[in-house]
Design goal:
Layout: E1 2-7, E2 13-17, H1 22-28, E3 31-32, E4 46-50, E5 56-60, E6 70-73, E7 78-79, E8 86-99, E9 102-108, E10 122-126, E11 132-136, E12 146-152, H2 159-166, E13 172-179, E14 192-197, H3 201-213, E15 220-226, H4 235-243, E16 248-253, E17 263-264, H5 267-274, E18 282-287, H6 289-301, E19 309-313
Parallel strand pairs: 1-6, 14-15, 14-18, 15-16, 16-17, 18-19
Antiparallel strand pairs: 1-2, 3-7, 4-5, 4-6, 8-9, 8-13, 9-12, 10-11, 10-13
Helix pairs in contact: 5-6
Amino acid sequence: MSYQIKVAASDITFDCNDGESVLDAAERAGFALPYSCRKGVCSECQGGVVNAQGITEKALLCCVRPSANVTIAPRKIEKRERVVRKKLDASVFRIAQAAPDVTVLQLRLPTGVRAKFRAGQYLQIHLDDETVRNYSMANPPHQSDSVHLHVRHVAGGRFSDGVLKELAVGRKLRIELPYGEFFFRDESAKPVILVATGTGFAPVKSIVEDAIKRKLARPMKLYWGARREQDLYLADLARKWHDEGHVEFIPVLSDPDGDWAGRTGFVHRAVLADHPSLAAHQVYACGNPSMTSAARDAFTSAGLPEDEFFCDAFVQTGTLEPAA
């Protein structure tokens, strides 16, 4: 059995199978809706659903599974080529400790297989208990024979505090990619502001290195927020980009040690201090959900068009695992 989904104020309709989410049905029909976690936590997919009384109610479209024909009012919907995802058995190639609580995990794809993704997107790791964990690709798309993941350790995390500890070079992991609407839009000429907290640096790294490879001329600023300096686990790389003129790097610490001479406070407020008006910019924010939410509200209040704000909120699952 299937139901018809109508998009309000448009002529768009598509079918949704029984038990299928509106988000999945839209993708299957070749339409892109905003989303991030696909777990009903980040609220990036929030839109309207018209009830039987004709009243539009807010709902998370990754969780809405219709039992009748329904009309929806998403924040945005775009026609796009149908998403083609691959499930692969990738091999652990390298495990490196970037910081006491951040592991860089490099997975090598099967011989002859290339990963097709856009800079900023993420993959899913399928675990033996049939759950999944989301991690952003930190490498740029042209490095397509492997994927690099930045895994932040969380006590009790099913992957970061369990599976990861048992991994060794050569071990296979089942992955599926690509996922995510957080990817670089290169059709614009607007200056770019990148905002990251913690391992939100991973997809930002992919975006910057892709831009460098393709010699994109758009001005870029990277604001990376953390509690303390040691949490900026690849700051030397970001400073290298800065020194080479690829991106202006502004680290921001919320709880610095006494010898820190750089910017302090909340990272989104540092952006606003430098850019009281954001009307002419495009912003990519990735990391802690409280940051991405605060950034969206503050930046749109500062004139940023809502459709020029792209975010990926790294949410936690029920087992305290971050999507990072």
